[in-house]
Amino acid sequence: MNMNFQARTILLLVAFGAIFSVIGCDSAQKTLQTTPPQILVKKADHAMRYGRIEEAADYYSKVLANAPGNIYALTKYGECMLKMGEPGKAAVAFETAVASKPEDSNLVYLLARSEYENGQYDRAFELLRAFALDNDDATAWTLLAEYSLQLDDPDTASHAVQRAIELDGNSTAGPYLTAANLAERLGNDQEALRRLRQAYGCEPTNAEVDRRLREYGEIPGPSLTLGADE
């Protein structure tokens, strides 16, 4: 990847250490000093599993207070922040994680999502485009197309979704669903239906594809299977 995250890693780690070292009351700090990190992670995972997101975030933050570079805690804390409507804080967490694992595509997608939801559109686009180009990553191209559509940029979306389709190799419905969204945005229902049929050919059991086809009056079945070149 051509992203210079490493240059910011030390500053981000220091920032995390400073932020999380002052979180909580005295009793929480005593707990932090005596509770093993693996126990805190288990408590955090349990809370998150049952939808107690703020509680989970607090536990993950306690882990990060002593180990600001913990990739797992950074990732889960970032996910908590997204759920809590704090994309800026999520972006800081994911950027720190990506700096340590720039090859981790899931972390890159989460960072791009955080930047996008935080209104940092140029950062999100640059991140996805760089990762897509460097890794021939169909998912990154698809996300770039989806975000471009949301920002009413059909030209960028068209280029990105075409690259995604070329790289995906008909293995998933995602790029074709995005292509259908683009066609609908441009008022071309016939092209949208063609793309949905292609999506069905990739994933016949995809519930979203099934729903979208029925909206066009089509009954999903073997007769709808359409190759990518048709």
Structural description of this entry:
The chain is built from 13 helices and no strands. Helices cover 74% and strands 0% of the residues. Helix 5 (71-83) packs antiparallel against helix 6 (87-100). By secondary structure, the chain is mainly alpha-helical. It has helices spanning 6-21, 26-34, 37-49, 53-66, 71-83, 87-100, 105-117, 121-135, 138-150, 154-168, 174-185, 189-202, 207-215. The radius of gyration is 21 Å and the shape is elongated. Residues 18-28 have low confidence and may be disordered.
Strand content: under 5%
The sequence of SSEs as H and E is HHHHHHHHHHHHH
What structural class results from the helix and strand content? mainly alpha
Enumerate the spans where pLDDT stays under 50 for 5 or more consecutive residues. Answer: 18-28
Alpha carbon gap, first and last residue: 34 Å
Shape: elongated
Largest sheet: none
Number of helical stretches of at least 4 residues: 13
Q: What percentage of residues falls in helices of 4 or more residues?
A: over 70%
Return the average pLDDT rounded to an integer. 88
Over the alpha carbons, how many angstroms does the gyration radius reach? 21 Å
How many distinct beta strands?
0
